[in-house]
Structures are given as structure tokens and as C-alpha cells.
Amino acid sequence: MPSLKDLRNRIASVKATQKITKAMQMVAAAKLRRAQEAAEAARPYSERMGAVLANITQAIGGGGEAPALMTGTGKDDVHLLVVCTAERGLCGGFNSQIARLARDH
């Protein structure tokens, strides 16, 4: 049977673990809240990009009214690739990766 000192040490250890767990939970909640706010802030951008892509799609499907650059001649497999990059913050690496993927695709 464990001694009284061992039991006290175990209780103290469990309490310390509870404090650490509570702190980790608070940090996770703050990160989740920040991520949710970022997602909400990106919603207008996403909606506008959807509208732009819908307009491009409509223009391509519209027949003779669409520019030849967008519709092509129908004789080859050339595709229009619309590339969008970021302009806020430290996004140089992100933009470089997008440009590299666009070139490779």
C-alpha cells in the first residue's frame, strides 16, 4: 500500500497535469477562434472569386461574344489558366509556389 507521502505526491502531480491541460485547452480555444475569424474574413473574397469565375465561365459558354483567347480555336488543347495570388503580409513563398505550380501545370 502506498504511503501518505506517495499519495500526496500523486495528488500534486495530477493537479499539475490538470493545470497544464486547462492551459492547453485555453490556447487551443484561442487558436480556433482566430481561425474562425480568419475564415469569416475570407468569405467576401471567396464569394467575389466565385462570381469572377462564374462570369468567365458564362463568357466562354456564350458563343461568339467571348474573346478568342478564352475560347480558343477548337483545334488544339490549349487551356486558359486563371492564377490568383495574395498581396497581403509575408506571402512571397506562397506566391512563388502558386507561380511554380501554374508553370508546371
Count every helix, treating DSSP H or I runs of 4 or more residues as helices.
3
* Beta-strand content bin: under 5%
SS-based class: mainly alpha
Query: How far from one another are the termini?
Result: 69 Å
Helix content: over 70%
Radius of gyration, whole Å: 28 Å
**Overall mean pLDDT:** 84
Q: Report the uncertain regions.
A: none
Number of strands: 0
Number of domains: 1
Largest sheet: none
How would you sum up the global shape?
elongated
Order of helices and strands: HHH
List its salient traits.
mainly alpha; 105 residues; 3 helices
Describe the structure.
The chain is mainly alpha-helical. It has helices at residues 4-61, 68-71, 92-104. It is 71% helix and 0% strand. The longest helix has 58 residues, at 4-61.
Write the layout of secondary structure elements.
Blueprint: H1 4-61, H2 68-71, H3 92-104
Task: Please sum up the structure shown.
This protein is mostly helical and 105 residues long.
